Amino acid sequence: MRMRRKTVPQEGNRDKVKHSVDDSLEATVHEIQQLLERRPVITVRVLLDWISSTSRMDIERALPLCGYMFEDGPWKKTLIKFGVDPRAGPEFRHYQTVTFEMNFNPIVEPGEHDWEKSGELAFPQLLKGDDNVPHVFGGRKFVPDDNSWQVCDISDVLLQGIVATSDVRSAATLNDGFFWNGTMAKLEVIMRDKLVCIRDGGTPNDEDYACLLSFPDKYQPPTGRDYLKQGKKRCALKGGYYTLPALSEDKGWTYACVFEKWRTSSKSISSHNCCLLTGEGWTPMNDWTREVCAERWGSVATFDGVKCIQKPGNIISGDDFATACKLKGNLSGFRDWQKGAGYRGTC
């Protein structure tokens, strides 16, 4: 059902179930119903972790007999207990989902690792284990078997602090539920970057995200044209350039933009993002000839086969160092560039 529907189903209709209800299915239905008593809004991902003795097919067959689902909105594709309406009050905000449309395949530099010879696991940070439960995100590992998490299953301390805000909406919206646009933006941007960092073998550093935490939970743009619209996306103008996402109250924001080219970057702080995050905010790439960005914030990063080093306020590419120096007006800086250990250089 669509979120705009005013009423929710109060009970299931067994006559509409396309398959027969056998003893095995009845047992699965009973088990799911017991879980819904404890947690009235739940994802299939959680059910698979909690009911390990039942196959995914059996769980999916049992879903229509246990609850209903929204096709859109902040509780999209969660199983909701019959008679429960998560739109009723802010107490249901913790059951909202965050979903990331991204590639979960690790990106590593060719030839950097030889796991077969070393006998090591290639990507231990992505393997299911006692310290890595698929439906839980703790900020150090994750299992890439799905792209959605419920807010109540995010145990990362930094992200928990963001959603623990008491400044919430009184009525749910289609995009952000009971959270304000700024709260969801901080949650989604930081969590996406942590996922990318972990995926590629790194360890996220919470200090790197400190400059984002001061952004208000509720963002209301001032009057006048303070945003750039790119398709259906908008980016806010701040300090003479377009910066971290800002939209109308009901839309929320998750995008960073490059002012010079008036274009929208990807949905994350990492990878294809064509802006640099400094202590002062977002720095536009300006006339860089390549989209050289930090895969994650560290001393050395790789983007598209190009080595980069993080200098104060900039990420400098070895291949495009002279061009990068133009950004700071120091064309002679490239003479100090040395390719080698540490990729040292000044600009």
Automatic annotation (TrEMBL):
One of its GO terms (biological process) is transcription initiation at RNA polymerase III promoter. Residues 1-21 are annotated as: Disordered. GO terms for molecular function: RNA polymerase III type 1 promoter sequence-specific DNA binding; RNA polymerase III type 2 promoter sequence-specific DNA binding. Residues 12-21 have a biased composition (Basic and acidic residues). It comes from the Eukaryota. Residues 4-100 form the Transcription factor IIIC subunit 5 HTH domain. GO terms for cellular component: transcription factor TFIIIC complex. It holds the Pfam family Tau95. InterPro entries: TF_IIIC_su-5_HTH, TF_IIIC_Tfc1/Sfc1. Transmembrane segments: none annotated. This is Transcription factor IIIC subunit 5 HTH domain-containing protein.
